[in-house]
Design a protein that fits this description.
The protein has about 550 residues and is α/β, with parallel strands linked by helices. It has four domains: about 100 residues, Arginyl tRNA synthetase N-terminal domain (Gyrase A, domain 2, 2-Layer Sandwich), CATH 3.30.1360; about 130 residues, Isoleucyl-tRNA Synthetase, Domain 1; about 160 residues, 3-Layer(aba) Sandwich (Rossmann fold), CATH 3.40.50; about 80 residues, no CATH class. Helices cover about 45% and strands about 15% of the residues. The protein contains 20 helices and 15 strands. The strands form four sheets. A five-stranded parallel β-sheet has the order 7-6-5-11-12. Its EC number is 6.1.1.19. It comes from Mycoplasmopsis gallinacea. InterPro entries: aa-tRNA-synth_I_CS (IPR001412), Arg-tRNA-ligase (IPR001278), Arg-tRNA-synth_N (IPR005148), Arg-tRNA-synth_N_sf (IPR036695), ArgRS_core (IPR035684), DALR_anticod-bd (IPR008909), Rossmann-like_a/b/a_fold (IPR014729), tRNAsynth_Ia_anticodon-bd (IPR009080).
Amino acid sequence: MSINLVVKKELIKAVQSLQDQGFFEQDFNANDLVFDLSESNVPEQSNPDKIEFNLSSNIAFIVKKYVKNAPVNIANAIKECLKDSKVITYVSVTMPGFLNFIINDELFIERTFEINDLKDSYGGNFINKEKVNIEFVSANPTGFLHVGHARGAAVGDSLVRMYRHAGYDVEAEYYVNDAGNQIDTLAASVHVRYLALFGTEKPMPEECYRGNDIIWCANKIKDLKGDYFNDYELSEAKYQELKLIATEIMLTQIMEHLKEFRVSFDTVSSERAVRASGAIEQVLNKLKDNTYTQDGALFLNTTQYGDDKDRVLIKNDGSFTYLLPDIAYHANKFAQNPSLINVWGADHSGYVLRMKIAMQLLGFNKENLDILTIQLVRLIKDGQEFKMSKRAGTSVTLADLMDNSSVDAIRYTMLTREVNSKFDFDIDEANSDESNSSVFIVQYAHSRACSLLSKMQAASKQNNAKLTLKAKKVIRALDDFEELIKTIVSTKKVNLMTQYLSELAKLFNSFYADTKLINHEFESTYASLVLAVKNVLSLGLELIGVSAPSEM
């Protein structure tokens, strides 16, 4: 059981004891109290003996509303009720009413035993296989993935890992926009580059893709089909075949790059399949009471639900907007999953409200559709924005990024900021093997723990050791991991994991610097602490797709 939970139970028991004594003027359920436990930070003037407290609480301020008394007096009454506690060995009250505690060393030591017994399941399996679909990346198969997709991939894949750890039945999905204008543009662009390989010059269309990835794709098609498409004007049948082949080649390359980036999917869905399934017609039928025709186009009435204008579903030439098949796709997902999470690029932020409205109109709970929008990434090298692509013209691709930086460094660094904030990725800093590299610090702490364990006595369940304050701070951080997973799952803030790992590594390194562990009087107990650090660092890194080396 977590240290916080054990201490909170002791405080609740103390409050209940005061209730039994008639201390409070109003009745309340002490088990429903919400109060804080935090690191103790007693002012020096209030702690002349420099006592090393472990925790502080604001509980006296929380229960003040039930009695006309000063928080300091309430705190002293709670202190009196704690005098026989086996968990809390010493209590001090500081103005204006904070309680400060020293916690029994045995509770900290026992917690390391529990963490080590749980191993890779620590902090997980608190959800009973509830289904959730997490869709991310979903880049158009019209070119290589760029650096912005890398951030979305790191966020989405980490969410998948953490939700699975929590006990969810997760479906990781990639949606391929393999129909519509962008695929026509891909085919036309590739065909021009393909013809050039046979010495035929044809002007590039006004709307086209010009990157080196298009030339690469044309060469792949030549390798596969020879001169099969070497016609200045393709027949409709050959044009459709070229579209399919070009799309498949690009998608295969995207998936290979994602695999190298340690990202995989359970399901790859296709817009073409959605269009062919009849799902769009079904959606239009269900939405008919909320649509209208104007100037030959079909509109969805979204303004009545807070949108700034109604949205076109079918243009006046009869073609679908991007929104319509996407609505059908989301309806299909909702039919199979009670909860959906989408990780979109910031350029799709305008679609969030209209998609939620559409789901509501189709009878789904729009609150069960969570959409994260990933802000832009800018690459920095030598203190300046870095333009570096060898493969895709002026864009910066994921492949380029992996050529210039390790997957560990990219993934960890991409997860150090909230998704709704713009992000500068400093290649030099990410690759550094010095103290300013976040991923290096964490991985080095893990390898240090591994090295120590190879030299120390085997960890044992000896619980009579005396712990230093720094040792207790490390164990307190280990204890927080359980709550961290719950917080990340509820908020989708995967950056909290990198913050946690960096802080744990910092605490462990500080503890290591101050404590001679080899031949220590309580070496086997401290080995249990080191093993718990190793296990939690390894697990935390695994949950964000970063390796945990045993040697560095």
